[in-house]
């Protein structure tokens, strides 16, 4: 398709997607899939069909969107929500139900996690209601069905599954008690009339969305989020979006790993300090790295591996590591781009792309790739360290320091697990 700009512009207009945030390869792959849905169809013919078919427009959007979610993702956010909800009810003297919003809600794991967390915290059903919105009708339909497979249940603590789910065909069905707390609907955050007649929400979850927008769209979306969030409310965002909200006038509520921000008491913008502590070092693994272990970038004396003929993901990942470690940057980037075209998104691949861009002096491109790696794997230690260094070089001392602290916590967790 050769970077056909018209498809990029269409997605930017419809859902605000900045092509640089996900890379052209992902969009081109989605367009190729939709073109090939009709044998023999050309790109121009598909473009004409796209202009006159609302279902096809939605089908392209669905092909680009990659729902990556699970129950209780970022568990400290839900623990924080439960504590704040109890406090908020006391502040409003229990005169009304709490209002919570989740957008994008994807296939429902987040809004249902909110409802389960509040029920488990002792709130009665009449004390809160959750709204979930997503631009994808397919995702909303799956959320309403509330049937989930093992990929939606991750982590060591799955006690909530015993409390709130029943066994169903090939998975689990969420209990009616939880489903009744959540209202799901299709909605687009770029729609200026979105929820315009609704009262503001006490808590809003909008995680890992802003990173896919360019700066003007980020500002536009942020204004909508402010309108939807009560003056005394709290906005929960993704791990990679904290520095952005800080620049937009929000402040962290100060609870580690909650990724929660408030408008109350936000400090006036201050000049950034000239110097900040250097990024934390990354532990050195062995020089020769098996395919299943992350290699130390660009280590010496690594024998290059020939490009694989197989499309197997593990083989391709091993080849990327070997090429990068051997200093073959162009070949390594080509292997990364091949992986993105042919496989599901992978945090380590985006980390390699970030590092390769970093080495080439493309700081903004590197920053985008590191953020994509952290979206898929929030505690990816190398991505945290390198993104912190980039933010520091750009003068964002606060953002860099937060990432350094997260990298340090990640390192301590890994050390404690190795000692067990």
Automatic annotation (TrEMBL):
Residues 1-241 form the CheR-type methyltransferase domain. It holds the Pfam family CheR. TPR repeats lie at residues 347-380. SMART domains: MeTrc. Keywords: Methyltransferase, S-adenosyl-L-methionine, TPR repeat, Transferase. Gene3D superfamilies: Tetratricopeptide repeat domain, Vaccinia Virus protein VP39. This is Protein-glutamate O-methyltransferase CheR. It comes from Pseudomonas beijingensis.
